[in-house]
Amino acid sequence: MEDLVCPLAVLPTAGGDREGGGSRSDCVSMAALDLRAELDSLLLQLLGDLEELEGKRAVLNARVEEGWLSLAKARYAMGTKSVGPLQYASHMEPQVCLQASEAQEGLQKFEVVRSGVHAPEEVGPREAALRRRKGPTKTPEPQSSEAPRDPLNWFGILVPHSLRQAQASFRDGLHLAADIASLQNRIDWGRSQLRGLQEKLKQLEPGAA
Amino acid sequence: MNAHEGRGAAQPSGNRSPLLRACLYGAGVFTWRPCCCSCACPGMRLGELRMPEGGVGPTGSRTAEAGLQWLLVLLGELCPAAGMAGRGKLIAVIGDEDTVTGFLLGGIGELNKNRHPNFLVVEKDTTINEIEDTFRQFLNRDDIGIILINQYIAEMVRHALDAHQHSIPAVLEIPSKEHPYDAAKDSILRRARGMFTAEDLR
Prior knowledge:
Chain A is built from 2 helices and 2 strands. Chain A is mainly alpha-helical. In chain A, 51% of the residues lie in helices and 8% in strands. Residues 1-19 of chain A have low confidence and may be disordered. By secondary structure, chain B is α/β, with parallel strands linked by helices. Chain B has helices at 42-46, 61-78, 97-105, 128-140, 151-156, 158-163, 187-193; strands at 22-25, 28-33, 38-40, 90-95, 119-121, 144-150, 170-174. A 4-stranded parallel sheet of chain B has the order 5-4-6-7, sandwiched between helices. A 3-stranded antiparallel sheet of chain B has the order 1-2-3. Chains A and B meet through helix 1, strand 1, strand 2 and helix 2 of A and helix 2, helix 3, strand 6, strand 7 and helix 7 of B.
């Protein structure tokens, strides 16, 4: 309570202590008013975030459902066992990754970015030299810094269009998932801020509580 | 440094400024790589261009494409200065076959002999202990930013989800084919619902 005393209250006044006491209560009520205003704006922001979260969730669910439907169509075209865990590669590298940034203290924001760059396909011989028609040719080992392989290639070279559509739907879903995760963090952060402000308000106005 | 010095993996001539240097050569972009103390040509970095005989710089649409891609890489390298992680975090997924296959198609999968996978396909014979162990492993990993989990699976390990209070990794509950999304069961929304009491609203 003492650290919330208005600095004006400690200045000497012509009326003595009585006026100083009145100024102190005015300062407290001013501080309470400011806190209430801050609480209101935080509450409005939280409600807006919740509404946005609900909207993005609905879109994410729709994208995921579209992806399932496309996967089912691809399975119908390629065979029941042709689209599933049996086709997963034994070595995978992520094509997309998450960039996490801290906007404010304790507030994380996520963004999905593509990891690495795709090297354009090089057509033609690598070296301007004669090809050896006899003898084993030693192909160079692929460098570890190569671009990650498209997961579509797990399922064959010519995949049906529905599988590409499924990939597009789930990629959209990943971007939405990052937005939703950021919103969830913001809501949690806002919740903790709200509780802190409510505690301060209770200290200022114990009678009202 | 003139344009000719930037070709190939040229060694710096002396001025080793720690600052990031970028210049445009035609449509190519060069950058300073302090980790290896060298300048790199887009072709060398990306591995797709080969210098033709005669020492004449690369021309044509490939150079333009390489330059644009290199600019994107350069911007990515500038991101750490803005507070963003260098490599980025992974997205993990725990779900049924279709959910995991779909998100792996999206490109989030990581699997190699040195590291554990960042996904788990939950089948009929997958036990709750396995799911919980995998979930806790994902929570303890520093390289995972988001965990996607089907809501019906999240219900099996609800106690572990509710105990997780950190902002990273974020846990997102998603629907499954047989179980649509129910907002009433979501941990985050349940916490938000309990934000206010009648006393707070006086």
